Fold each of these.
Amino acid sequence: MAGLPSYPFDPELLVGTVTEVGPTSAKVNLPHAASPEAQWHHGQRQGRGEVGDFVVIEVGDSAVFGRIVTIRLPEKERLSVEPELGKLREAHPVGVVQLLSTVTIHNGKVTGGISQYPRLGSRVYSAQSHFVQWIAQATSKDPATDKPVYLDLGSLVAANTAPVQLTPERLFGRHCAVLGATGGGKSWTVARLIEQASRFNSKVVVLDASGEFHTLGGAIRHVHIGTGPPAPASSEEVSFPYTQLTENDLFALFKPSGQSQAPKLRQAMKSLRLVQLESKLSSANGLCVKAQKAKQPIFDAQQKHAKKLEDPRADFDITRLPEQILEECVWPSGGTATAPDQSKWGGYQENEKGFCITLITRLEDMLGSPELAPVLKPGFLTPVADIINEFITGSKHRILRISLKYLSFAHSTREVVANAIGRLLLNLARDRKLTGCPLLVFLDEAHQFLDKSLGDEANRYPLDSFDLIAKEGRKYSLNICIATQRPRDIPEGVLSQMGTLIVHRLINDRDREVVERASGEIDRSAAEFLPTLAPGQAVMIGVDFPIPLTIQVSKPEAEPDSKGPDYQANWSREPEPEPKVMAVGSVLPQELVEITDDDVPF
Ligand SMILES: Nc1ncnc2c1ncn2[C@@H]1O[C@H](COP(=O)(O)OP(=O)(O)OP(=O)(O)O)[C@@H](O)[C@H]1O
Ligand SMILES: [Mg+2]
């Protein structure tokens, strides 16, 4: 019985007998299930067969651990539980037990799945709460109890016991997804996980889409992209300069149309990079003028700087882009129709300029828009890439919170920037910068960022950084924890990479189906309990969990600022009288004229 907290088959806790066995469940006689009261055992309430109760079935040297998922009375005994029909008649309730895992009694080993099936007549016992807690924490290879680093997320709902301790390997080792309908408690759970992780020498990046994690404290650095009142006041405004975006990112922002505009935009960016490297090719206003000019000097410069030009992050003056696009609209050769001169470009091609005009006006509009300023006009703000590098190499902070609250949805800025941050992190990981310093990235409101692709039919710009992190980050010490209210918006390829699912209340059928598909056969029964969870309660499902656990997540110390509107306070307030505003030059109403006249001293 090494390792087991107690002998699981206590005769006082006998609740029934197996009458039918299937591959994943067993039918059980539960003679006491119709009695009105539960029983008490050593000061703990012990169910006598209730839906959701955990049970252990005695099978030779093993205990098969399971959970009651339905109970019913045989049809002819339905009325036996009606007290007003006279004396209570005997009832013979039958329950279905979902078989979850096997515990070997002599060595205390817990294995997910069933290695030895119950037999007809096997006895079924109610599982004691400390036994449930023990089994919840124990897996065959990773018991948290003897590890120095563990997170305390909450306590088991069924057992109402001391905290369940989970190692970070088990929670995040194969990534983690926090799912649930709005108000289910995802943000609070994320805050709790972050707080627990920050108790140790960890490195955590929080991408905060709504700014609600500004309450987090401790060894944390707060930065925000975009302009607005900083929360907390210590938060520093940073930028994501366009020079750190890839060509694809810029195309996703500018959305050139396929056939005519995209090649001109590409060419214009290349020309502007070239004049940055070879100033003698630049005109007085910083452009690379091609009309009627010799091609060779430009070709030579392109060859000379080929390597630098290929770097997608090579610098260029983006304010010149609209004009440079017009400079690209030239005939491919000079001379005349009868005597073409291939060594020169020809004059301007007016119809091509016409094709590009919508792109040019869009670009001018974007270059002047304050929403895109953190990207297109970064000024002297520190780039977020530098902040991330500093965070990873420095020892002062354990959490880096990047608030995206002020980053506009217009022109898809938010998606493109979040995706670019994901790419930065993935590149750091691929360059082995995280070996020895695992990085955990939290992405709340992930449906805003995942499975997005911008552009039209001809030009698709997939925003797939986080998908790639989910697929390959683990090998490079980069793990991700995503939280979303729309599991069906997460690509199935990503969800299937998630080793741990923390699922709060989920009502929508299609969302529940997605969870059921992502979890194994054993956990499917757990999905049936999802619509009935209270705020803060969650089912934990995953490859490393021998049983699906229903836990009450403990409140985080710093509650996220995620409250809904306060209708009572707002709707019960008397409306303030509207100030009388008069337009300049308007005729004064009669009563005002009179008052004013009386008041004027002579
Ligand atoms: N662990 C918890 N303990 C107690 N109450 C909780 C817990 N988690 C959540 N709640 C309650 O539920 C409310 C909503 O929680 P939260 O903001 O985390 O929801 P959410 O799932 O992130 O919603 P949304 O999808 O709209 O962002 C909280 O304001 C709080 O009152
Ligand atoms: Mg939330």
Amino acid sequence: MWVERLGRTFMARVHDLDLSRPLAAAEFAAIDEAWFAHRVLCFPQQQLTEPQLMTFSSHFGPLEKHVLQDYHHAIYPEILMLSTIVEDGKPLGLADAGSYWHSDVSYKAKPSRASTLYGLEIPDDGGDTLFCDMVAAFDALLEQMKARLDGLQAAHNYHHRNRVLVDQKGIRRDLSAAQKAETPEILHPVVRTQPETGLKALFINPGFTVRIEGMAEPESTALLEELFAHCLQDRFCFRYKWKKGDVVAWDNAVTMHCATVLDLPAGSRRTMWRTIISGDVPI
Ligand SMILES: O=C(O)CCC(=O)C(=O)O
Ligand SMILES: [Fe+2]
């Protein structure tokens, strides 16, 4: 295998590695090295069964099931179906795929460490995934801002996001009482440290972060807006154009991402399998 950097500060393509077979310890060591150096890894030209994707994903940690059971794979609930296709009135997967900037599962006490996506059906044009490097974004902040953020915590709220999506597009349903109980609002540090590398990253996202704890609302909103505008500058972002058979795996602790599925023309077919790897409480 060999690794090709794609973005200015992050993102890489890992060539010549077949994820369908059992990988050797040395191969996993090389993947881990690339993981910490590039934060988002793309593995082209894969041909995987569900268990093969799950086995590969498990290298990064235990798999967990998404709170939206409606979109679990019928046989393998650890796989979440993302799909623009509706058959007999039934969506084959989550249709919007997360078309807003977010870090997966940041709304739980233990946010997801990593996620993988496997492209089964890819439209000829569009349906790209955008990524943002939150290490580079943190690094580029003025020292004054870094000092201001030191020790701050932010609230992450899934109910809020779901409500926006229900109201906005009617593409999501209200959460059930059980789904709400599973996702109470939670606080995380605004700046987190990746334990393995010591790298610091901003850990807030427009999708789920609703306020800075202990700050008056106008000040909190202004600070979040300023930070999001800073992060989403082109120099910290990368647009990933999919090919069928790509597996993309990313570190949710140090990146954000955004699907662009809502921009696709009606009738476009895009289907992905997705796994979520459990993480630890952010520090
Ligand atoms: O489908 C995409 O482009 C991204 C989907 C997403 O946000 C996710 O799987 O976590
Ligand atoms: Fe996501």
